Fold each of these.
Amino acid sequence: MESHQVLIVGGGLAGLRAAIAVADAGRDVAVMSQVHPVRSHSVAAQGGINAPLGNAEGGQDDSWERHAYDTVKGSDFLADQDVVEVMAREAAEVIYELEGWGAPFSRTPEGRIAQRPFGGADFPRTCYAADKTGRLLMHTLYEQSLRRRIGLYPEWMVLSLVVEDGLCLGAVAYHMLTGELACLAAASVVFATGGYGQIYGRSTNSQFNTGSGMAQAYYTGVPLKDMEFVQFHPTTLMGSNILVTEAARGEGGYLINNKGERFMKDYVPKLMELGPRDIVARAIQTEINEGRCFDDGSVYLDLRHLGEKNIVERLPEMRSNCLHSLGIDPVKRPIPVQPGQHYSMGGIDCNVDGETVVKGFYAVGECACASVHGANRLGGNSLLDTVVFGRRVGRKIAQAETAKSSSPNGKALERAMGRVERRLKELFSGSGDEEPAQLRADLKDTMIEKCGIFRDGVVLKEALSKVTELQGRYKKLRAIRGGRKFNLDLTRAYELGGMLDLAEVIVRGALAREESRGAHYRMDFKARDDVRWLKHTMVQHALDGSHFSYKPVAVTRWKPEVRKY
Amino acid sequence: MAAERQVTLEVFRFDPEVDKGPRYDSFTMNVKKGMTVMEGLLHILDVQDHSLALRFACREGVCGSCAMFINGSYRLACQTQLEDLKGRRVWVGPLPHMPVIRDLVVDMAPFFEKVGMVMPWLEALSAPSGKEHLQSPQQRSIINEAVDCILCGICHSSCPMTWTKKDYLGPAALTKAFRFVADSRDVAGANRLALVNSEDGVWRCRTVFNCVEACPKNINPTDAIESLRRMLVVGRRKSR
């Protein structure tokens, strides 16, 4: 049995940043990832990463306090302010660190890191590398992981986190390339497994973003937090729902309805297109719902006035996506867009150092909820979240006693592997006739139609009964075909169970929360209700279903106020 | 409205541990406007043949997972629309000259190994300001193209030199080397140049330009390799 002091699951920005911190502290660490690190979904982040460097014109008065305040206000006061403070205080340092490791940021004429305006921020705070920021940071961290010779298990998919008596013991994993099932002993396991976008129709997320890490943590009894808060990005390409970066609006793009109006004047006249994502997404959806959209159901993102030079230099990837997907050149024509699922504010409940209720088990990045994004994440804060908290988790583990000891509990791991093996055999010998692809399609439709941007108690109940029905049908899957090697039918059927259970807690959380806050908007409860609902939703898995409870929000410096822009 | 066009995807199937030899399976489907080869393959996986093996992830040309050989060209399946491919038959195979694991999935490990051999990371002194290293937009522009590489493996697979000389570093690894040698912040250029100054380094390139033609990100690896050669011959400063 392989054994490591620290096992990181997920090779995106959060996972690699954590691994680098552990390696720099001289501890043995390995990264296990379902895809090669440079294929991680972090590469799809385009617009940038926030830090109050003050490099751009008009940014000189920016400060970590202003960054923290914008983040808290953007979160509709659901973020834990002590954690937000840590993120904002450490932002500049981690950016300079990335730059020193080779991150090829775009530059100001003076040679400093270039910054641009983003939604919901009072200053131009978003550091960028054209519109390829996530990808170029991802490659930088991959390069640094090579420099440190960090052990990598690429295309190993973790199927089960192993916890016994409140102690983390390791993981059971499937090697895609050989079909081998193996258990790995590790006293410290970090989940940096990303979001669950594929639960939703119209998602910007990668095909493998199924929330499997969140589901596995949930099954071991670790609570999930604030799962009803789902971010819908205002602008995704019509049809393919490929992300159109917020930088397009940061650089000055207009949103236009079918009357030719910049309709954001009716929603947030001061910020216009640079309102926070929840507000802009609702505005676009309102225009669509009320018929002020174009024939295909889109609104237009018009960049033509920015000129070819600006578009080519600053938004090249966005332009290439428009050309490839729609055959539209944004230099010459407006881009048809619609909102789409983009990010999970909720996730595995953890503290500022990624620690969870299970000793030795940590979470970081999109799969985690510390919480810095609260009810609505600001653009440019997710990349920051991955590197600030990746570094903190890594450093915390390096100090922890559990990371030093390594007497693997072989028997418990063997038992866990036996359970996974039985589950795979069950899937191969299924005698039902339900088609997993059909269930997945039904789930995606249900979530985007009934638990999307605008929610309503009656409709959420429909969503819940549909998800419950799908959970029932999941028990009657047809037999999975083929052998063990690179069997996508197998892995996708395995993950579908977790997707359905995550969908259930998202819908239940949304149904319970009788208020509107950030990205969670209830047509039947349109106001924020701090008296009843200024609290985090916690959900725990039990044999008889999901158990909900609530815990207070950390309010330190900024008293909740009406969120006005 | 125009009738939906039907296309048949001829898909390479092979499991070296099980099959005597490779074969192509035919899958016919209706093509909707905007539908990519990737979507066609996912349709096969969902509906027609659940046993198909392929890599896919971002569907927007940035993760490099879906590099394939489509109708005789090196393409990213997610960036190739079925509508744009003329004819009713579309041939889809794995990246040529790379060991097949199963169907469209090839072994990328030897490729990543080469990339790892060129010191593919920045070696910089601490910035004097304690902040960022200053780098002018002009200095940054020298590496604009090279940093765009998504490590999809297409150039490596397309290069005739890699077909016969397994030890050749190949266009992607050498472009990576160039990316750091040419970075104004880097201080390890001489070491890196020494690593590529060999028969299986920059001197193996025969300027066939297959990599230039094949690269889905429009990078010119031959130019990067030529730059490294110039630096080795006339020195780094003069070659600029």
Note: The mean pLDDT of chain A is 96.
Amino acid sequence: MRLPALLFVPAAVAVALLVLPVVGLLSRTDLRRLPELVSSPAAVDALWLSVRTSATATGLCLVVGVPLAVVLARGRLPGLRLLRATVLLPLVLPPVVGGLALLYLLGRNGFGGRLLEAALGIRLPFTTVAVVLAQTFVAMPFLVIGLEGALRTAGARYEAVAATLGARPFVVFRRVTVPLLLPSIGSGLVLTFARALGEFGATITFAGNFPGTTQTLPLLAYQLAQSDVDSSVAVSLLLVALALLVITLVRPRVIEGSP
Amino acid sequence: MTGLAVDVVARRGGFALDVRMEVASGEVVAVLGRNGAGKSTLLSVLAGLVRPETGHIALAGRVLTDTGRRVHVPPHRRGVGLLAQDPLLFPHLSVLANVAFGPSCLGASRRQSEDAARHWLSEVDAVGLAGRRRWQLSGGQAQRVALARALAAEPDLLLLDEPFAALDVDAAPALRAMTRRVLRGASRTALLVTHDPLDALVLADRVIVLSEGRLVEQGPTRSVLARPRTRFSAGVAGLNLIAGTAGPHGLATPDGTRLAGLRQEPVTDGDPVVGVFAPSAVAVHVRRPHGSPRNVFPALVAGLEPHGDVIRLRVAATPGLDWVEGLAADVTPAAVADLALEPGTMVWLAVKATEVAVHPAPSRA
Amino acid sequence: MTRLTLSVVLAVMMAAGCGSSPRQGADTVTVLAAASLTAAFDDMKTQFEKSHPGVTVKITYDGSAVLAQQIINGASADVFASADQATMSKVVAAGLTDSVPQVFARNRLEIVVWPTNPKNVVRLADLARPGVVVVTCAESVPCGAAIKKIEQSSRIAVHPVSQETAVTGVLSKVETGEADAGVVYVTDVNSAGGRVLGIPFPEADMAVNDYPIAVLKNTRRSTAAAQFVDFVQGVFGRQALDRVGFQTP
């Protein structure tokens, strides 16, 4: 198919808007100092923490998000529309407000936080777990909304056939729904991981900022921007590189897997 | 009875289905009706995918639905298989795994399931496809695999929802023959939704006709199609049907008349068959014709009615030739005038052997 | 249609662009000031404008480092007031100051706790006590650099659970009760009102923060800018700084 030429003008504008800022970032980088800045212990710690927490958050989204998407798309519960709207909330909420919300729930004086401390002796704020929770909170909608859409588009015909073949609901979910959803799950997970990786506001509000424990790459980049802009740019480039790596390596394989 | 007993009222949007019917064990019933007559709703209700508002469904001695006692057996425990127009083979599984899906859900081990799958694939002549994926199959192949998959789950009732409608004209007859073999061979209880009278003719013992959610006509396939009492079945039954047994030249009617025709599928001599031909293929003569037509038989004109540009002639039997009753022939208005045709006129009907299609018929038809 | 849309978009973008660049009217002094100066400088602006009719003062508050970056990247402004000498030095090093920076205020650290002080924190050493959850500023922020210096000099090791990138982060964590104590500047304690309690500690003398102010090189309003710098260091200015907790030289 030949694309209408008119399409290329706004598309080019979009590319410029997306790519030029990154070019700007690169142009400000002192390439000779880059290796040194990127390999500083603080940067390496933050990178490793970012990878670990984002991966864990993505895993958490997978475990609870896929079932949620199926419930939203296939369930026949009352109040499902309200629930669907609620899932969108983290997308609309400024992340800092999301972090505050988590703090008021799971913080020391929050309802959930008191419960956790009384029952298990656990305190969440300022821990790596808090980072993961903040990332999960903001990233979950990216997985759930994409999957719900895919489920709706696919319809329930394969599931109906599986049921007539004797598969009970959980077997249908495990052997039909999930496998058919794999491409969408893959692309959803990439988005989720990318969002978790870039998460800043909710993390710094709920988890604070401490090297090795809660200081992820975006937090380090922001902190460095206060004093040493070169280092900040270098760390940001590290983040960009990591995101690009994940998106280009994982995404095409998952999406374009088999016809 | 151990077959299927249904008495349900179901609503879907503004549409209501209100059906009471029974299917004997081992019987194949064709469900005919226009789009929107309620055929698919009926199948969904039977499969348990749609809950009826009120009613009762029993299959093979088990109650599947009883709204009065709040019984609703879920789809996976009903023992009702479904073969739809779209084969809906699971794209992430091989053909073998698709067919093994049912047995494994019933608790068979992996090995047992695959053995069962191979057995059912061989039943539909598809063993060679075992390793393929959905996109490596033609439409007909996919539908054969889907049939094997439905049968491998050992359903007490098989629902066939226009299973040949999406197939090429070339693929449909073979699959129809295949379906006939597996249905008739094992005396399966089945419900076949179709638009094509040929499906009903070849596969079904009995026909029911749905219109606006209600059962408007039912009876043995041949009599419903030959003597339609509703406009729908008349529309479907534009064809002439003659039942008999297969013979070397075509078929023999119960009174011994030989009718020459072309076999559409392999049949053994003596098997029940149906000869099918269009009213437009029938020539009408007032004197016995000589020459090529091998099939010539006398009849009495019973009625004349306009049918588009032609006049459709319906005939009554002459003594000793009962099967002629109800046959139709299309003639031009000019011919009606030339031959001075009117009810009671004695005529000779002639059909070329090449116009008579001989199909295997259900044994009890 | 497309051309029309495009020109509308361009027009809007240009208008927005013009609006955001500080336009130096004949009588406007543009000041870039550290965020901690907000209350004092707002006060001074009112008084300065009263005593200098026809002159308008426009102040942008942000972190000193951010402001310094903006100056180095070409933001046009007349006066820069930084929260520390190090940041000012960068602007000086870039050759963008027109006058020698002068220290006009000093800020000391204070321990900050929940108003009822439940953990009974009274001295710096209490912050090293186990069971006391402490947040401080990150070292890259002036208040973090100061506490680091004090830790080294006093040999008291504070183990914060978080190194906040802004003073507001420390305050909010103490206000919400997530942290038992934090370390911020006196002026921050004052601006937080009664929501937190400030506790002075002697070791704070080891790292007093000097606030320098300077007229910038590319100013077109050098007279008014110099007048404002003088005003900040004058009687009115000192009073205003005093009220919010700054020490004045």
Note: Chain C touches chain A through 23 residues (CB under 8 Å).
Amino acid sequence: MTRALGRLLLATAVLMVLWQLVTLAGVPRYMLPSPVAVLETLIARAELLVEHGLITLGEILAGFVCGSLLGVATALVLSRWQFLRATVLPLLLISQAIPVFAIAPLLVLWFGYGPGSKVVMATLIIYFPVASTCYDGLRQTEPGWLDLARTMGASPARRLLRVQLPAALPALASGLRMAATAAPIGAIIGEWVGSSAGLGYLMLQANGRMQTDLMFAALAVLVVMTVTLYFGVDRLCRTLMPWQPDRLREGGAAPP
Amino acid sequence: MPSSSSRQTSNNTLQDCDDGVLRIEAARLAFTEHCLFDGLSMTLPAHGWTCLLGRSGCGKSSLLRMIAGLPVAPDASLSVGNGAGQPLNLRVAWMAQQDLLLPWRRVIDNVSLGAAMRGERADRERAMALLEQVGLGHTARRYPQTLSGGERSRVALARTLYESAPLVLMDEPFAALDALTRLDLHALAHRLLAGRRVVMVTHDPLEALRMANQILVMRGTPARLDSLDVPSQPAPRDPATPAMSNNHARLLAMLDEVAA
């Protein structure tokens, strides 16, 4: 683990040095600010970045929670009442043909200039991946487990919640990890389309004023938030599934 | 047709047949193309092992599933009843070829799974006592994947015992084990399931001869059930005696022969 972290830091450092060299070669600051300049801006404008960052973070987290809950609920309902599959599932698939970006202006119109429309956007963007991975997981339960539960007199609801849902957790976990990286996209797009606060708003403003260093600083904050969210979700999933062996760590890339 | 919803009200029929034998009557399984069996019946004594043998595909596993009230194939038409002309509605303990331990439940919680499935409070003391009986008390807090195949089978046996259902249905429960582990489990299962009514489907004639109080051979199309005398020694019988080899040869011949 520490070795992997060390390698990651080394790779990042090499990239930073390359970046610095490129800017030293004479690329103007408004095109590509040097990493040192971005770092300076990060420190100098920390207050502004934190203020807008917290707004975006709130939107991302709210969207992540809403989208995940809605996705899991949809998967459970579809598994429990099979007749819904024929009607709801095609509708869901068709809805995925609509790019969320295309309806972003509409969402701003409906849910306002504030965080509401951004939360809805993030929710929409992660809803389907979560619903479909969870639903697939629910359907792929070992049939023998369901037989056993039946002979024990388990009701269909109990079979769903006590057998199928835990069995679907690994599949759901990969959906949630995917959602953790997609939720920020929804929030940022929402802020671009219409808002008066948030990192997306800040980036758009900075871009218009040629404050490219501020834009990079905002981007850096966003990256840190997304990566933290991803690893937080990953850790949470592992904690919820203590029985699940960590195959990557056990059998994966052996250290040379 | 026994449906999953009718299983909830299952306890009563057991009481009726607890005084003695349980009769399974008029079992019928047909697909659109062909009929696997029709009018099969068997008599299961109040306790003891009934072993069901037959070639692959003869329908013995389906018959077991029908008795358990489990769904068979989607296009199958099936019916099975008890002697009184009513559909079977039995509470059974089910043990399949795989151990079917739930990986997210600790060993002790797998033993008391039935309580969780019925929404009852788990009797941890009883689960623990059963786990000790199969010699795995020390693994109670572990997750199943840390156990060996033989240990997992023993946990599955403890879970089956926890059900305290008077009819235990087993579908090749020991088939995936190595020979020595299987012999151990035979002895253990025989000891712990004494006094229960057990029906075991098996592919292994020696296993049937070792364990059974009654051997039923399923053969022919549509299949019928023929019973075979079992050796007189008490089970579990030593597989290395001449009497066992004789019986083994007879049983193999019987399985091979096409029923008239």
Note: The first helix of chain B runs from residue 11 to 18.
Amino acid sequence: MLRDITIGQHFPGNSLLHRMDPRVKLVLTVAYIVMLFVGSNPAGLAISIVFLTALYLTAKIPLKMVARSVKPILPIILFTAVLNLFFMTGTSEPLLAWWIFKIYREGVYYAIVMAVRIICLIAGTSLLTYTTSPIVLTDAIEQLLKPLARLHLPVHELAMMMTIALRFIPTLIEETDKIMNAQKARGAQLDSGKLSQRVRALIPVLIPLFISAFRRADELAMAMECRCYHGGEGRTRLKQLRLHASDIVLAAAAALVFAAIGMSNLFFERIG
Amino acid sequence: MPAAVRVEELSYIYNQGMPDETVALDRVSFEIEEGAFVGVIGSTGCGKSTLISHFNGINRPTSGKVYIGGEDLWADPSDIRRFRFQVGLVFQYPEYQLFEETVYKDIAFGPGNMGLAREEIDARVRRAAAFCGIEEAWLARSPFELSGGQKRRVAIAGVLAMEPKLLVLDEPAAGLDPEGRDTILGQIKEYHRQTGATTVLVSHSMEDIAKYADRVLVLSGGRVAMYDDTDKVFARAPELLELGLSVPEVTKIFLRLREMGLDIDTDVYTVKYAVKTILAARAGKGGGAPC
């Protein structure tokens, strides 16, 4: 079901992670992704997993949610893993050889490493959106990109567009669900038939969806105009982002973990 | 004859096993007789819409069974489409589902999916359009040029054109002016009278339910609170008020009159019957009661 899409979903809470400065969270998430690819040895990955699990526990977000966010991209993970399994060639004797397929020890390692990486990547970025409301997140992006405004990059406008897009994802998903149900009630076949039939069956869903999206955009523009929105210039904020001591402590802790991941490369054999 | 709808121990849970799990329906059981006109009332979020979308298999029960005309809806999941043509479901704000270039084509979408012959489709489209007060001239126009009330009628005609045995409407008059409201509900009642189709009407307006329904199903917190003849349900006004629901204005007046010490029945829920009761009360007391 469409409802199961969790990207950009937010779970309100009051944990240490929820209260953390979104700019710090954003930077740390990016750093975490980089470290996932730097720490390419079993120890490095193990630290990454433990670190992320600890963060999930701190945020009081059930680990079940990880399963939910990973589920939609499971095919991609499996595909990558299988591909690596068969295409990595190693120097040692193949573990298995059958016809043109040869599986080397390196292939097995690499397949596991890639799968773990992708899962951590999804789980890590999901944690960011789970603990940060979209509005606050775009606020953080806007602040972090502010230096680029000097180069005449429309930072505020981009951030506003992102805020609006994120805000309307759940609304449009709900709307799509409703329209699909209404057309199914009139006998539309949306989940069976040949590909060409299925594409044609989407027309009764897409047209009402576009029309409603335009209608909403129109209403939103009107509402913004009514409240005298005139872009970012001279705009002040109700909630100013401020760094707290706890942010610095957490950032320092994360930096230590990242350093550990980096160091692990020195002591363990690198894979891939 | 089997009941038009039989619901047995139906439960439906959204996001089962997740932190945001919600029980929308909790072991609901009831039966709707063939040819009945049933009103469904309940406060917002009580599970009305969830319940009716079980009637044609849009929602699949978490547990329990739904029978349409004596047949188990989910006996063969691949055959669910057959029931979609037997049960016409009009969702809230149905005008947002219009998509075709012309009104005619949009009304013909349902019958077309049924695989009917071209002449049959044509006849059904015209019949349904006439029923909903859609003029011939509109049929060739784009549905997006019409007014809100007109679009609503086109959308309802799109469901009526499938000529369902069971017609289910979720707040068909929401957001319409009083005249549009009476027109649409009047046409639905007329369809019920002429075809004998079992009709289920979900509404927040107690007046509408009182005027059109023979029986009333009251939902509260995902459970059936009451299910009885219309007069018997509205006679239990204090309980309805406790559930956060209301009773028709005219019933409220009678309850107040009784409170003031007048000896009259309070199972009054339409203005017509109210006039009769008042006249009878006056005649009985020789015009003594100061009304």
Note: Residues 2-267 of chain A form one domain.
